[in-house]
Structure formats: C-alpha cells, structure tokens
Amino acid sequence: MPNFDKILFATDFSENSDHAFQYALTLAKQFNGRLTIIHVINEPVDLRGFYVPHVSFENLEKEIEEGAQKMMATFVANNVTGFNNYETAIVTGVPWEEILKRAEVDSSSCIVLGTQGRSGIDHLLFGSTAERVVRKAHCPVVTVRLP
Q: What does the alpha-carbon distance between residue 31 and residue 54 come to, in Å, rounded to a whole number?
C-alpha cells in the first residue's frame, strides 16, 4: 500500500473545502504525513487603465492577499487541532495550474480538494478545478463533495 507522506490540500475557504479538509487531516494523521494547505488567489482581471475611484490596482491586489492571509489563519485555527506537521501557502494564479505546480514541486503523494458540484451550463462555461487536477495530476487525487 502506498504511503501518503506528503499531502496537498487545496482550499477556497468554502463549506465544501471545510468538509474535504477532514479527509486530508485524517490521511495526514494516519500516515504521519506532512500536510500542505494551499489557497490560490485566482488571477484578477487586469483593471489597469480603467477608472475606479479611490482604488488602485496595486492596493486591490494587496487587500485581496491580506484577506486571504486572514482567512487562512482563521481556517487553521478552526480546523487544525492536535496536528503540527503542516504548512500553509497562498499563491496567485490559475487554481488548477498552481495546485499541480505545488504538487510537483513538493513531490506530493496525494492531493485532496472539495468539489463545487457544478453541472450543466455552469460546468461548461467555468470548467472544474477538481476535474482538471484529477486529469493532470501525477499522484492520486481525493475529491470530496458535501453530503
């Protein structure tokens, strides 16, 4: 049986992610593995050149990153108890690409993420981060839906 010693968990701070995290944490505890919790700030649309009163693009990016840092701190405080072998990361980019990059760099043995369960036209237009990760990952991927 494979050893899941490096587990990558991707969160968007949704209820789905909170639910999926329990699976990632359980795997990390059972296999005495290193858990990396990653959040990807979706690349914002480039608004430079547009007039947006009292908000600069650089300030907007900074505020988004600061908000993500606070959300990560809250997530960890609320969800990671009795386990110290973890690290967090916040990156900017296309979520599925950044998740796969981190998995490759870390030589992750497993990726865990929640699914939004989009269907129909939503799925066609927006695609699925989970689906792309499953199709392209070099390691097993555990996807978890809300019950």
A: 50
Write the CB contacts of 35 (distance below 8 Å, at least 6 apart in sequence). Answer: 7, 9, 24, 25, 28, 83, 85, 86, 87
DSSP category for residue 43: P
Beta bridge partners of 36: 8, 87
Instruction: Give pTM, 2 decimals.
Output: 0.86
Instruction: Give the rounded distance of the alpha carbon of 15 from its chain centre.
Output: 13
- Structure letter (DSSP) for residue 13: S
Long-range contacts of 72-80 (CB under 8 A, 24+ apart): 72/37, 72/39, 75/11, 75/13, 75/18, 75/21, 75/37, 76/37, 79/18, 79/21, 79/25, 80/25, 80/37
Band (22; pLDDT cuts 50, 70, 90)? very high
